[in-house]
Amino acid sequence: MLRRRVADVAADLPEKIIIPQPVNMSDAEISEYEHIRQQVADEYGQSATLISLLRLRQFCTHPALLGLDSDISLLSSSKYCRLLEILEEIVSRCEKVIVFTSFTAMSDFLCEDMPGRFNIPAWQIDGRTPVGDRQRVVDRFSEVEGSAVLVLNPRAAGTGLNITAANHVIHYTLEWNPAVEDQATARSYRRGQTLPVTVHRLFYPDTVEDVINDRLGRKRLLAETAVVGTEASAVEAADVARALQLSPCGNSGGDC
Asked: Which residues are bridge partners to 99 per DSSP?
């Protein structure tokens, strides 16, 4: 098997800077997360799978995705507030950014909020975007003078698109599979990119996102050292078990 990496065949690429962005939850978020975690653990128990953790991932993306309160503010999410801080700095430099999120509702929130908040255009590509329209969206984004935001689903738009107009990538929701995240980052960090690319990875410590982050690091390390890895089902079960036990109230998952 011959594996060729971007770094091996494109030595002329600029620097790629990966910045982990752990974000601490507010007390209210911690309490609500713990409540949802207990519900998921009680409902699924030993039969839980990665899919069972969807509600926890949705809450970490934004509490509004769970539909618990139709009047909830976008700023009630600590992660969203951190995203705005990063975007403010990017906009001040008149640079472009790609934001990756798995959830269409979050994509809609971003595209509705960004133009008014920063006075910049925003587009999105996800499973609802016809394949024939996707390159046209990228072209419009690339042609903008100054800052713009492109919100992408990492599976619908994580391959095949050349988006070197953006030199910032923000992974707002982490993916279980490192290949999905890496392919998404490669939309910007590829041949034709002339600027250093900054990659921000936002996650909440001591939550399901912490487990995902650890899993990504472990699988990347495995890919560096072996072609055949450990038994996937056993590793997956351990990740699920840890995700159901881990709590921002404390690593043991005790009461808040």
From this structure: 151, 170
Which among 118, 147, 152, 110 is positioned nearest to 135, based on CA atoms? 152
- Contact status, residue 229 vs residue 222, Cβ threshold 8 Å: yes
Residues 6+ apart with CB under 8 A from 143: none
Distances from the Cα of 20 to the Cα of 39, 132, 239, angstroms? 29, 34, 20
Query: What is the pTM assigned to this prediction?
Result: 0.90
**Domain membership flag for residue 81:** yes
SS3 173: coil
In a domain, 41, yes or no: yes
Domain count, the chain: 1
Residue position matching structure tokens 């690319």: 197
Domain that holds residue 131: 6-245
Domain containing 186 — which CATH number?
Answer: 3.40.50.300
Tens-digit pLDDT profile for residues 148-176: 999 999 998 878 899 999 999 999 999 99
Mind listing the pLDDT tens digit for each residue in 74-133? 999 999 999 999 999 999 999 999 999 999 999 999 999 999 999 999 999 999 999 999
Beta strands in 94-212 (DSSP E): 97-100, 122-125, 149-152, 168-171, 197-203
